[in-house]
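Archive record:
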Amino acid sequence: MSQVDYHGEFWFPVPPSQLWETIERFEDFESWWAWLADFRADGSGLVGGNVLRGTVIPPVPYRLRLNVRLRRCDRPGLIEAAVGGDLSGRAVLRLEAAGQGTRAAVAWSVEMRSAPLRIAARVAYPLMRWGHDRVVDMAVSGFRRRALPVPAVTELPAHEGAAARPGPEAAPSCGHSAGG
C-alpha cells in the first residue's frame, strides 16, 4: 500500500520539440498549477544532473516535498529521473510525434518514505490514490490550458446553423493504470 505505480498517455497539439521547450519553462510552473508550491530548479533546462524541487499539495490533507533528479535527458524525446524527498523511486517521460502533435507517455513507480505517509497509506490508501490521480488530472489539464496554444478550430461544412468546433487533432486521449 505504500507504493504507487502509474502509467499514462496524453496527446498534446504541438510537436515534441515545442512541448519539450514548454516543459523547460520552470519559472512558470507555479502559475500553471495551484497544487505546486516552493518550486525551484538547481539549473536551467531539461539536462541530466539538474534537480527540480517543490511541494505538491494534493486535494487531501497532506503535502509531499519532492526532488526530481534528471538522470537522462535526450532532447526532445526522453527524460528519465530519480524521485526523492517524501517519495522514492523513478519516473520516465517519453515524447513522440503523433499526428499533428505529440504523444506523451509517462510512468513512475514511487514508494512513500516518510512515516506519516506510510501510516496514512495503510489506513486511507484509496483517499491517497484519489489525491494522486486528481493531481495528475490537474497537471495535464492545467498544462494544456495555460502552457499550450489554443488548439486549431476546424470549420464544419457550411449549412444553416453550423458552428466551428475543435477538430479531432484537439481531442485529448489519455488513460492510466495504477497498481499499489
